[in-house]
Write a structure and sequence with these properties.
Elements (H helix, E strand, L loop, with lengths): L15 E5 L5 H12 L4 E5 L2 H15 L6 E5 L14 H13 L6 E6 H4 L6 H6 L2 E4 L6 H10 L3 E2 L8 E5 L2 E4 L8 E6 L2 E8 L6 E5 L1 E4 L9 H14 L8 H7 L11 H4 L15 E5 L2 H19 L10 H4 L3 H8 L3 E5 L6 E2 L19 H8 L4 E6 L2 H13 L5 E2 L3 H5 L5 E5 L6 E3 L4 E5 H4 L2 H12 L18 E4 L3 E13 L2 E9 L5 E5 L6 E3 L17 H29 L9 H9 L7 H7 L1
Parallel strand pairs: 1-14, 1-15, 2-4, 2-13, 3-4, 6-7, 13-14, 16-18, 16-20, 17-18
Antiparallel strand pairs: 5-12, 7-8, 8-9, 9-10, 10-11, 19-20, 21-22, 21-25, 22-23, 23-24
Helix pairs in contact: 1-2, 14-19
């Protein structure tokens, strides 16, 4: 058996070390420990974006307190190959921050997916040469800095809210640099930087002061005069089309960043790099999941979308080998690095990790947490319980004390294992449990106590403000789905269609209504479409275009809402006029009910509870 806190690592290039016996979140723990001991950084390649997010949360938690090892992510663009959309600015921010730091990274973990690894990248020189350092006391010109920000791809706005934005108000410059968590407020005295402070984009209130900042480029491609000239020349070389009929060429020529321009990096640069060109020679590469199968599936998708779009005269596209890196080329490059693989192998290093028994609470029993109580009483080892948030931790502390479970609060995993406490409680966004048999250490998460589906719903709620019926991505739509258009009513989705109008090619959603009528909705208006929430999708009643049918339906619904509101107000008034009776609250019973509640609270319910 091997010590998970001192995992064996490959010592030279072109060698592979195998690990097996890994269960639950033990893979993230051993990676965090390996990153702290390796000679260089560790690159983790995941099979999909969900695994990337999970590993990020887990490694960041286990990594806290180990040393100076940072955790970085190179996220996927989250667009389909050759899409006419650009990635969200937050994604570009994370990517640029990682690409800037990676070449000089001596120790740390970089998490990415195989699909992200298959994208070609801007040259290293572009990112380093287009970064700007500012310090307190430095002399700057507002006019020159404004011009420089625009050339770097930053967008001037009234109020800074997102990455890649800046605003100038007198002697104050607000900017949200790529790669930072919060925007920064630069206060000038004459032409000298007097102070630099972080601020909250929601309240616009200044916070902690910093002495220096680094401004990364706002995009993965240049939009200065030289970049535009390079694009125009290369575009004419690569594509034999009527340039007057190419909106993307006309946009860039006018200094506009056209959506989906990320798929034309090869037009901006003479050569592109891959992630391997950013990696230090001492990098150790590890993979989780079947990354070859995931990469091959992605390559098939790339080729299919290329064949579907390659003959578009209004938006010509580059061949796959000019934008992406083939799977075989990826694996050929991997061989030259030190590698770690999670798999059974005759020479594999084995770690003694176990799966937990079923510890889920049962609210129907007189003692809902009996399984957990009996497991803790059996003393399988030192146990660290895990709550999702600070609020949940306080709730669980009170609940556990009522059933004579008294965990000691700990901030980090390292704090717990360094102590002699038999039972602890921490805060972490972790779903998978951990049981280290030889070390007698266990991590039990809320997912094991209250079942995994509850933890998943809470995470979705934190990251999504939309209701369940809002369609947030084209991938959520399936052909023949019944949908509702805000202005035209219930129709049936028949797929995507490319339409050219006035020389500009755009993708439209095709919606079919009663009598076979068609409505074409640009994908940019996806927010107008929602799911049909009726009982049966197949028999959804389609509205008729060009009539008042849908408007009448909406008016009737509004009238019913007003009637219900009036009835509720009347009931509320009657309640206010009567004297109420307050029942005694049994705190223990209430805490048990709240902790094991099998449904997610609505926003109104949370407000009422608060």
């Amino acid at each position: 058996m091997n010590d998970i806190f001192n995992p064996p690592l490959p010592e030279t290039e072109f060698t592979t070390t195998y690990w097996d016996g890994i269960v639950g979140s033990a893979d993230s723990l051993v990676l965090a420990q390996a990153a702290a001991q390796a000679e260089g950084p560790l690159l983790l390649i995941c099979d999909n974006n969900e695994t990337v997010e999970r590993c990020l949360r887990e490694i960041a938690y286990f990594n806290a307190g180990i040393g100076d090892t940072g955790v970085y992510v190179l996220p996927d663009w989250e667009t389909l190959p050759y899409d006419s959309f650009s990635p969200h600015q937050d994604i570009i921010s994370d990517r640029l921050a990682t690409l800037f730091n990676l070449p000089k990274l001596e120790r740390g973990v970089v998490v990415t997916s195989i699909t992200s690894l298959m994208h070609q990248l801007p040259p290293r020189q572009y990112i380093s040469a287009n970064s700007l350092d500012l310090t307190v006391g430095q002399s700057v010109s507002i006019a020159e800095m404004r011009a420089q920000m625009l050339l770097a791809g930053y967008q001037v706005v009234e109020a800074v809210m997102e990455h890649g934005e800046f605003a100038v108000r007198g002697s104050i410059i607000d900017i949200f640099p790529m790669g930072t968590e919060l925007p920064l407020r630069i206060d000038l005295f004459d032409d000298v930087i007097d102070s630099i402070r972080r601020f909250d984009p929601e309240t616009q209130r200044s916070a902690a002061q910093v002495k220096e900042i680094r401004l990364l480029p706002g995009r993965e491609y240049p939009m200065d005069e030289a970049g535009i000239s390079q694009f125009r020349g290369r575009f004419r070389e690569l594509f034999d089309v009527d340039l007057r009929q190419c909106p993307i060429y006309q946009d860039v020529s006018s200094g506009l960043s056209s959506p989906g321009l990320e798929y034309y990096l090869n037009v901006f640069f003479d050569r592109l790099d891959s992630l391997f060109d950013f990696l230090p020679e001492t990098t150790t590469i590890c993979n989780i999941g079947d990354i070859r199968a995931a990469g091959e599936a992605f390559w098939k998708d790339i080729q299919a979308r290329y064949e579907d779009r390659r003959f578009d005269r209004y938006r010509p596209i580059l061949s796959p080998d000019q934008v992406f890196i083939a799977v075989n080329d990826i694996f050929r490059r991997l061989k030259s690095y030190r590698q770690v693989e999670f798999k059974q192998h005759p020479q594999a290093s084995h770690f003694a990790t176990l799966s937990l028994p079923d510890l889920a609470s049962n609210s129907r029993l007189a003692h809902p947490f009996l399984s957990l109580q009996e497991f803790i009483a059996s003393k399988p080892g030192r146990i660290l319980l895990c709550a999702e948030t600070a609020g949940r931790r306080e709730t669980l502390l009170e609940l556990f004390r009522q059933i004579e479970i008294n965990p000691v609060p700990f901030e980090h995993w390292q704090d717990f294992i360094s102590s002699d406490a038999a039972l602890g409680l921490t805060i972490a966004q972790i779903d998978r449990a951990l049981w280290l048999q030889e070390e007698n250490l266990l991590l039990i998460t809320e997912a094991q106590i209250f079942e995994e589906r509850i933890a998943q719903r809470r995470r979705r709620k934190r990251t999504q403000s939309n209701t369940d019926f809002i369609i947030k991505s084209l991938t959520e739509l399936h052909v023949d789905d019944a949908v509702v258009h805000l202005e035209h009513g219930v129709g049936r989705y028949r797929g995507l269609q490319t339409i050219t109008t006035d020389g500009e090619t755009t993708e439209f959603l095709t919606l079919e209504y009663a009598n076979g009528s068609k409505l074409y909705v640009p994908v940019s208006a996806l927010h107008l479409i929602s799911r049909y929430s009726g009982a049966d999708q197949d028999t959804a009643p389609l509205n008729t275009l060009g009539t008042e049918q849908w408007q009448k339906t909406k008016r009737k619904a509004a009238e019913k809402i007003r009637d219900v509101a009036a009835e509720l107000l009347d009931i509320y008034a009657q309640r206010e006029a009567r004297k109420g009776f307050q029942y005694r609250v049994v705190q223990e019973d209430y805490d048990k009910f709240a902790a094991s509640f099998p449904f997610e609270e609505t926003a109104d319910q949370e407000n009422a509870i608060a």
